[in-house]
Every structure is written in C-alpha cells, then in structure tokens.
User: Fold this.
Amino acid sequence: MAGAVAQVFTIPVSVITTRQQTQPKGDKRGLLDTGREVVHSEDGWPGLWRGLKASLILVVNPAITYGAYQRLREGFFAGKVNLRPWESFFLGALSKALATIVTQPLIVAKVGLQSRPPPARQGKPFQSFLEVMSYISENEGPLALFKGLAPQITKGVLVQGLLMMTKERMEILFIVLFAHLRKLRNTKLQRLADAATSQAKGALPVLTR
Assistant:
C-alpha cells in the first residue's frame, strides 16, 4: 500500500526524467522545460502521471522477490536456520533475477508510455501499457519486451544479493544482542533480589534467651 501511494507522488518525476533521457541530442531541455512540454502536450496535466498503472503493478516486484526467496530457501537449504553469507547472497540474487524477468515487459512498457512517441506514430502517444507492448511486439518482435534485461538483472542481483546477505547477518546480530541484554537484565534483577534478601535478614531482630 505504501509503495502504491509513493508511486502516485513520484511518477511525475519519473515521467520527466524518462523524457529527458530519451530527448534527441539537439533538443536537450531542463527539468522545468521538460515538465512544461508534457503539460502542454495532448495529454495535459494527466500526462505527468503517464505509466501510473504499470508502476502500480510493478509495486509487486519486491513481493515476488521475497516470495521467491522463501521458496528457494526451502528448496536449496531446507531446515537450515542460519544461512552463510554466500548462501544468502545466492538466494537474494536468484530471487531478484526471477522477479526482474517476470516484470521486465512492464518496465519496458512504462518507459514507452513516458517517452516521446516513436516517429512511426506521427506524434500520437500511447494510451496504455498494453498498447505499448503490442506495438513493440509487432515492430521489434516479442524479445524486444525484454530489452535492457541484462543491466536490470546485474543491478538487481548485486543490490538484492548484498541486501539479503546483510539482512541475515543483522538478524543473527540482533538475536545475540537481545539474548545478551536479557542475560544482563536477569543478572541485575538477581543481584537486586539478593541484596533485598540480605537487607531483610539484617533488619530482623536478634532473639536472645
């Protein structure tokens, strides 16, 4: 839910950035000028939220990643409580690669929605990510929906692999830390109890015959 709300607020920046990255060499514009170009186009203000539907669907990418991570962990290291760093990295990298392959066509479609229309469309913008995917498949072939996959996987593998490796180490560290703090707390309480017992014994009257 939080990811979806964040997309609503950040998608205009994504649209402007994509436009800037795909501008012709001799037509480079600044952030505000590119934003005005989008607003003054056929789409108007809603043009700043182009690709929102695709972005909302792409919010499931982390869910796919973590779901795949748990499944792969059960498959490769069933019953193992604590993973080694290289095992965590391997699972994180593989799960992210799978999630990227599944969602890459949507990423390509989102970029197509946010970019200027190709010359063949004579300035007519795409209306949906399905239209973009259909156009790419017809003109460039189905494999074109996965263009840019290698850099995406490389980036995702490194980031997610390191993230999961660090996550596993931090979980172990916090478990050890909490166990140590609990032990210190119990020791302190025992000392207080012993001190209170000693004081109580010292306060008892001495009986003489």
